[in-house]
Write the structure tokens for this entry.
Amino acid sequence: MRRTARILALAMAATCLGAAAQAPAATSPLVEAYRAALTFDPAYRAARHEQLAAQEGIALAVGARRPEVSLTGTGAFNSLDQRAGDVTRSPDYRSSSVGVQLRQPLINRELESREAQARLRARQADAVLAVRELELGERLVEAYVQLAHANALVELSREELERQGQVVGSARRSLRGGEGTTTEVPEAESRADLLRAQLGAAQTSLENARETLLGLTGPGLVLPAPRLASRLPPPRPQADAALVDALVATHPEVQARLLGVDLARENINAARAPYRTRVDWWLGASRSDSDVVNTINQVNTLRSTGLQVSVPLYSGGREGAATRQAQLLAGKAEADLDSTRESLRLKLRQALRGLDASGQRWQALQSAKQSTRQLVDATRRSIAGGVRSRLGLLLAGRPLAEGGRGPTGLRGS
């Protein structure tokens, strides 16, 4: 849960919601969306049910090692035809019996191994639930930031289209005044048509992003339109091998794989357990009334206690095969653990390099933005001196609008 909280905190640092950005984190729209996703998302709900079922497995395994008490009873009406030499009798009688027995396993390696397996499965289910929670947080943040990015692109496209409309109007006025050329108007109108198409594509992307977010949180959640922050979060310290190894070691997926290795090793003991000696203690009492022909009209009460020992002598080679199979599967679990570690190391290194590259791109785009502002200022001075026209000012401001797409996409990534 703490790892997911960090993801939400980073996302809230990358997005802002006007006045809502000043609200406490517990009431932020992103946290509300995350709570709704925990209830709605099928993948997380499946992992949650699996985790709860694994906890019940412990109770099942522990219960198998506890005393077992059973009560049995029978009742019957009997009609007997019996001949002994020349003597024949045909009595009708009722018979009944009732008994209670307590059985307690004393030595049973199989039950002990089952309990150890159940506890490992429960811990593994906890780790898998943490993985699903982390994945849900990542998917939610990605959808949330993509929605903010799409909303920013729609606003930027509208501003560009409005600015280009001014360019078209200025080009037409220049042509009517004899200052412009006949190609400036078609070029400006063509650019406006292109911007209209871009605005339509941006609006479609916005609807798709909104549907993606609602697919995680459910259709009943209504959120304000998120907006991207005006700047990037502060840079992280330089990543090194120690940092990557520490992040990998605490990752829930690695924890789940580690528990999978422990479970596979315990399965080796479980494979051997059925072929080990078992000892049970039992205590019983029974009362029977005419339960057999020779005890008609007799009531017998029996109390007994003792030990039952079971020693497997020959299993046809199944023990060795089951042990070797479990050992091979343990080797596979160890290989899967190594594969998961290497995959996470690669992803973390790529993600950290992406953060560093984003910071460098951000600085380059800010420099380009400043240069464009200087160009606009120089164009204004040229207009004041009678060298340039207002159409030139509008065209000079175009790179400033186009450059806005770079920082917008960078903040969204």
